[in-house]
Design brief:
Elements (H helix, E strand, L loop, with lengths): L37 E6 L5 H17 L3 E6 L8 H11 L5 E5 L3 H5 L8 H4 L11 H6 L1 E2 L2 E2 L1 E5 L4 E5 H7 L10 H11 L9 E4 L4 H5 L2 H6 L5 E2 L2 E2 L4 H17 L2 E4 L4 H7 L5 E4 L4 H4 L6 E4 L15 E5 L5 H14 L2 H7 L16 H9 L3 H7 L13 H16 L5 H17 L2
Length: 432
């Protein structure tokens, strides 16, 4: 998945980190000499050969323009999920990179290590135009007022639907004004037990894929995930959100429950699921199928169609070396610029990082190659809130995911399950 922020519960022990003390009042790049000879390390987080090659080519291009800078590029770990434990280990022995890809859900944990740069002043430069990134991406990069990184990938959850299944069932296609009640009715009509077809699907693996799909419904009902550092997801809004899903899974049996996170996209591609709540990372795979699909924003509650975004980051680390810090900033500024990002994210099927990119030829080509890409880009406007960046989020996500799974399997009621998750989450959140 290009961009699903999987929550990994790895404890980052501050006392064991060693290395420079990250004083947020001190600029890590103060005294930076742009002409100094310097070597920086970039962990790209890209495991697919095509994506890693694209990253290596961009590093080479930057080096051709900056003869004094050497960029040592690697994926950092065999799978992106393993980057967090790899970073944890590298903090202990001082081998951590200057720049690393990171899931947005790790932001609070990484900030707590004391190893990140504070880029708050850097991103205020009008020339950088930090405001051109989606709001949720800006918020994800900011932990307690400290900007620890720059958006590396932006996405969101929308509704992808199989046009042929809708036609067969005689159901009108989804549109931007759809409510969750209309979604439920359609899911029930699309379900055909004899053919093994389900109206929709949901992950019950208990991972962040399970958890973050609930947040749009909670926000649409006016709810909060946290109130300060205290759980708030078990309020009336959270219960109503989970009840909406429970009705389809338990009462209607129109929802395929995926225990793996991976089966439902394959079933959609095979014509066995009518609608899936997913993101632009699906478009690359769907382009290799014959499925006639459409994309629109999520159904809404009382006209509110908020979604959730899973921005990932380029996190910049402090090695107590101004030239390494400054060179890292300049490289990431270049990498995330309008013209260069079009060569990277758009080239590998991701949404553009910046709003200004919608006017580029590359975006026009992307939208043509990946039907639904423009709809996902427009849906970024509905990503008005960000997931919390507190260190305890990963632990909380695990308990919320387990609660959702129990409810959708008919083993618990929404209020009971969410209350239980809130009690279990509280200690990790209070210690954030």
């Amino acid at each position: 998945m290009a961009g699903l922020a999987a929550a990994v519960g790895v404890a980052l022990v501050l006392s064991a980190c060693g290395g420079p003390d990250n004083d947020n009042a001190r600029d890590a790049a103060k005294g930076y000499d742009p002409d100094a000879k310097v070597t920086i390390t970039w962990w790209t987080g890209q495991q697919e050969p095509q994506m890693e090659k694209a990253a290596e080519n961009l590093a080479a291009e930057y080096q051709r323009k900056h003869k004094n800078v050497t960029i040592k590029t690697s994926a950092g770990a065999q799978v992106t999920d393993d980057l967090l434990p790899k970073l944890t280990s590298s903090f202990n022995n001082g081998s951590y990179p200057d720049v690393s890809y990171a899931f947005g859900s790790w932001a609070g944990q990484l900030a707590a290590t004391g190893k990140t740069q504070d880029l708050a002043d850097f991103v205020r430069d009008p020339e950088f135009d930090f405001q051109d990134f989606p709001k949720a991406a800006q918020e994800t990069a900011t932990v307690n007022g400290v900007v620890i990184g720059i958006p590396a990938l932006v996405d969101n959850i929308g509704l992808i639907y199989n046009k042929a299944l809708f036609k067969e069932a005689g159901v009108a296609l989804p549109n931007k004004r759809w409510s969750w009640e209309q979604f439920r009715i359609a899911a029930k009509k699309l379900t055909d037990e004899e053919k093994g077809v389900y109206g929709t699907a949901y992950s019950i693996s208990g991972s962040e894929d399970t958890t973050w799909h609930l947040w749009p419904l909670l926000w649409q009902h006016g709810g909060l995930i946290l109130n300060g550092k205290k759980p708030a997801f078990n309020n009336e809004a959270g219960v109503a959100a989970l009840e909406t899903l429970r009705q389809m899974a338990v009462d209607d049996k129109s929802m395929f429950l995926d225990q793996t996170d991976e089966k439902y996209p394959q079933m959609f591609a095979n014509g066995k699921i009518g609608m899936m709540m997913s993101g632009p990372w699906e478009l690359l795979g769907l382009s290799d199928t014959n499925i006639d699909y459409g994309v629109t924003q999520l159904p809404g509650y009382n006209g509110d169609h908020q979604t959730v975004s899973g921005p990932d980051l380029w996190v910049l680390f402090n090695h107590d070396n101004a030239n390494r810090a400054g060179a890292s900033r300049d490289f990431i500024k270049w990498l995330t610029s309008k013209d260069v990002d079009a060569k990277f994210n758009l080239a590998i099927g991701n949404l553009p990082l910046r709003g200004v990119e919608q006017t580029t030829m590359q975006f026009a080509a992307y939208a043509q190659e990946y039907p639904g890409g423009r709809e996902f880009f427009n849906n970024l406007e509905n990503a008005r809130q960000a997931r919390p960046t507190v260190p305890g989020y990963a632990e909380m996500s695990k308990y919320v995911g387990a609660a959702i799974a129990k409810v959708l399997k008919g083993q618990a009621k929404p209020q009971q399950a969410l209350d239980d998750a809130a009690v279990k989450s509280a200690p990790a959140l209070e210690g954030s």
